[in-house]
Design goal:
100 residues; mainly alpha; single chain
């Protein structure tokens, strides 16, 4: 497979992750309990998958940004870290940077 083909597949995949993460982040701010836990688990998986895909094609910035998001979602799931509006804004900024 040509590098260009691989990059096109990568961007299609990342576009889906970005969409899912944006939507999930909007929803997670409005729910709590088990519903929030389920959303955070999905978002953690999307960030993890995006990180791996970025590593595979040498997109270090996206890999690092996705890793940061994954760490935040993991902390919210396991350590009681709260995704405040300010934290959510930082995640949105990261998603926008990847998109652009």
């Amino acid at each position: 497979m040509a590098d260009n083909d691989l990059l096109n597949i990568f961007w299609e995949e990342v576009s889906e992750y970005l969409s899912s993460l944006n939507e999930g982040l909007l929803q997670v701010e409005m729910v709590d309990g088990e519903e929030q836990h389920k959303l955070l688990t999905e978002m953690n998986r999307y960030a993890h998958s995006m990180k791996g895909a970025a590593r595979a094609v040498g997109m270090g910035f996206i890999e690092r940004t996705a890793h940061f998001m994954e760490e935040l979602f993991h902390a919210a799931l396991e350590d009681g870290f709260v995704l405040t509006p300010e934290v959510a804004d930082s995640i949105y900024d990261g998603l926008d940077l990847i998109q652009n």
